[in-house]
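Comment thread on ticket #2218

A.B. wrote:
> Attaching the input chain for the structure job we discussed in standup.
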Amino acid sequence: MKRRTVLMCILLCIALFIPGCGCGKKNIVVEKEMKRRHSTGDSWTVMIYMSASSLEKDYKRAGEVLKNMAYDLPENINVIIETGACKAWSIDGVDADKTQDFIVQKNGIRKIYESDKANMGSAKTYSKFLTRTINAYPAEKYISVIWGDGGGPIGGVAHDITNGNDSLTPNELKEALESVDTKLDIIGFDANMSASLEIASAVAPYADYMVASEDIMPITGLDYNGLIEYISDNPSSSAAQVSQVICDGVNDIASGEGKKFMAISAIDLTHAQILATAFDAFAEKMAENSENIANLQKMTALMNNAHFLGANTDWEGYSNLVDLKSLENQLAPVISYGQSDIERAISKTVFHKVTGEINEDVGGISLYYPKNKSIEEINKYKDIYTGKGYIDYIEKTFAHDGILNRISDYKETSSYKEYQSVIGDYTITAEADHSGIYYMSASNSDIITKIGVNLYSYNEEDGIYYYLNTDNNVYYNKITDTYEYKLSNTHLKLNKISVSVYLVNDLGSKKVYSVPVTYRDKSASVRLLATENNGEWEYTVLGIWNGLDEKTGIADRNYQKIEVGDTITPMYEIYKGIDGEYIKGKDLTIVFGGLNVSERSISDGEYIISFETEDVYGKQTESKPTNATAIKGKLQILK
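C.D. wrote:
> Ran it. Output below, let me know if you need it in another format.
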């Protein structure tokens, strides 16, 4: 019996080293070139530029994609992948110390090129890959897919974690494509927030179509299996048809709550410049109207209702991207500009899109809008986008001396001069009456664009107040020129625990909220979805999202499901603390039943409330706090 056991062990060990035996780990990288099946129809070359970076480091996602790259391709279809930007691969056969090109075969991927490690965030590296591949595998139609991290037009795409997170900016994409002799049929972005007017304008001269995501791209990304199968079976399809297939494929394989943020567009780049021209004419009107303080007040107030994409809170960071259709819908009535030109241009430019529940109303193409008023970003943007009308609007409305190479002087506008005449004496006062109504008066309500009531809870252990939420359900009484707020006795809680809640997007019948937490030793957010149903709000936990990387602007692609046994730690912003100062709450360990969100009675204890306003130039003013107490779930003002 002992001899038989030893023999079986020997045979098993031998089997592990026999290729194709079905035992042990599959060898992804193969050496032998495989014979192709015969084909008819147009030839295609698909070029995947895989900048693995944090997606491989954190989620081993690049390795997963490569594991599935085994297709029985006909002779007229070539799929080439360039790998890089990785400190260590989760699969064997791909060298993290090299830049390597692989061709896809029915039994795996075969290495066809290797060089010293190159910077995947460099235009030169991307250009060399395209040129080398097109020369080696000429075809009638070409697709280039940039795979990796993304941060919109400012953050760029294809970040290289091994080269200081350098990325391909819109200008570098233009530089790379300009150096390639052959025009692409399709350029695709398997990355976040790349369906922007700025990126489309940059690549438009060098490709016919673009497929990209306005918001967070699901971590599952493009359906390469569906794409390759389709062009293999339908090689004579047009690039427009294939662009639609790529778009639909994202929806086919996406899963989880992150699918709700899906917003994938197929963009006709021949119309992108027409759209850019139409928008800049619209933006000229925006800039003209911003010189009138009444119109400026209306425009900046309405922009609070626009549909923003990606991260949108101080804790998560700011992607500073707004849906272009949403911006136009908000501002067109104020500036007395017909919407038809831009609407027509968007409908022709974005000829197909696939959206999730949260982004079902987006137009398919976004625009940079400096919501967090970062002067550093605005100066970068001026090197990316050259539309004079929109730059003029930005310079006039985001008034700051740090903006370089101005085309206009905001200090000379009548709106700014009028603003300066009142802002020095601007004050707000707040008081409550016996009926539980909280009142606010402002010395000049004409400059207010946003108003809310902040609620802070007292932490007896630390002797501080910390932020819970802001309620924007404030009524303006034109007769008395006062703002009125009825005290709320409820608050959103996670598993009955009061948490800080920030509004990410108010989409009318839907609202997205963010709760700051730490999760697995990282700053993160629990994202919540509120949906109105017959006048009542229903709440859903979407999952954990890591937001933006503070240094690079990279947006996390994964919504992590919260499992039983996980621990999250709520974080709370300190009242009147140092800007961005938070304290940890008590750990919340998820038990059977999971993590649940509900609107519940406010917990008994001490509170303070305050009005906070934001004016036409973004200055925030908070009233003196008013003391309150909650007894048996009812909030009362203390006299």
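A.B. wrote:
> Thanks. Noting for the ticket: Residues 1-25 have pLDDT under 50 and may be disordered.
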